[in-house]
Amino acid sequence: MTPDPEDTPMKYDILIIGAGPAGLSFARSFKDTKLNVLVIEKASLDELRDPAPDGREIALTHLSLKLMQELGAWARIPAEAISPIREAKVLNGDSSYFLDFDSRNVDDGALGYLVPNYQIRRSLFEEAATLPNVEILTDTVVESLHTDEQSGHVRLSNGETREATLIVAADSRFSSSRREMGISSSMQDFAKTAIVCRMEHELPHEQIAWECFHYGRTLAVLPMAGNLSSIVITVHNELAGEIVAMDEAEFNADIQQRFGNRLGTMRLVGERHSYPLIAVHADRFFANRYALIGDAAVGMHPVTAHGFNLGLRGQATLAREILRAAARGRDFGSRRVLVKYEFRHMRVTRPMYWGTNGLVALFTNEQAPVKAVRNLVLRIANNLPPIKRIIKNRLTETTS
Ligand SMILES: Cc1cc2nc3c(=O)[nH]c(=O)nc-3n(C[C@H](O)[C@H](O)[C@H](O)COP(=O)(O)OP(=O)(O)OC[C@H]3O[C@@H](n4cnc5c(N)ncnc54)[C@H](O)[C@@H]3O)c2cc1C
Predict the structure, then answer these.
(1) CA 82 to CA 228: how far, in whole Å?
(2) Complete domains list, the chain, with CATH
(3) In a mutational test of the pocket of ligand 1, which residue from 136, 172, 272 has the highest number of ligand atoms less than 8 Å from its CB?
(4) For the segment 330-376, what is each residue's pLDDT rounded down to a tens digit?
(5) Is the CB of 172 under 6 A from ligand 1?
(6) Is the pLDDT of residue 81 over 50?
């Protein structure tokens, strides 16, 4: 359907709110189709073209790698920005015992791939922006929306309106359109902050990812290309400001000591960024002529590194259902299509969301009996191959 300049408002097949990685990958999924897509984003064109580093290094699973390749985005990420994770170790408290996942029997000998978020965003924008059937409207906020039997309608910050057969919200975990469309959600505020940064170190990381559930805070050290690691510190909100403001030399020494000097001397590279830890799972993934994808559907705690992985998978599931209906000449914005999407995607997101929150609850509980349970859990997972295999498959998504 081509927008007719004579018509007011302009009508599209699909209108996407938000050009984050979920919205852009979804738009790109309609390459070489007849569907007309409009993406509306509040950020500027320059911010989309050349996103600033935001400290987030995204661990992509094997399924995500395949989806990124299919979207043409993987080839646009410089090879030197991609770092394979060959092994993962989980530590508890002050014990030196660790749960270990290696990459034996995994494709390419990698559990996953660490890629800077800004490179993912840039690659997806470059792909989506080249499509003749995708229009990206920047510096524009969707201020309100409503739907009727045939269409969804949005009112924009520039005073204009747009209409589409289906509205897809990729407008972040704090999605205002989700609330406006009456979709409730489970939300968990962990009252914690993730502080992320890059650090250079003396010794090689050997492509090992570490998750240290220390008492009082957690520390993840994730291998980037070269002698560089991504550091993720999770602390109670009241401590976060102090850590971000810490003098660099003091910060370097602190992280080096908390990581047991495993990487030798460590040095901060660039800025420290902080993110509030609030997880969200929408109770429904659709309403009339409206669907949720990305963090707007499920915003995860980063400890299991699954937020964008789920976002990528969910957008692919929705795009597949839409294209299947369109190919049969059916209404692709109908309830029938959206129900299938919700069913397929929620089957994946619910266990991952509640499992992750449960893991966080256990590994941040510092009562004496729970500390013992934490140790026991690591030992059981390490020594029971079927359990270890299930966890590994979930984390790497080598089987979908
Ligand atoms: C510290 C940290 C580490 C992470 N690590 C991992 C990891 O290892 N692996 C992983 O898979 N995931 C990880 N994630 C999660 C991942 O970053 C997110 O899942 C992903 O960025 C969400 O993308 P999105 O497009 O859904 O939302 P967002 O990136 O939040 O984008 C939403 C977009 O919508 C726009 N927008 C919002 N409202 C409107 C409106 N009304 N009108 C117009 N535009 C609007 C915003 O400007 C924004 O561009 C991590 C997250 C954090 C914080």
Answers:
(1) 12
(2) 10-187+279-396 (3.50.50.60)
(3) 172
(4) 999 999 999 999 999 999 999 999 999 988 888 888 887 888 788 78
(5) yes
(6) yes
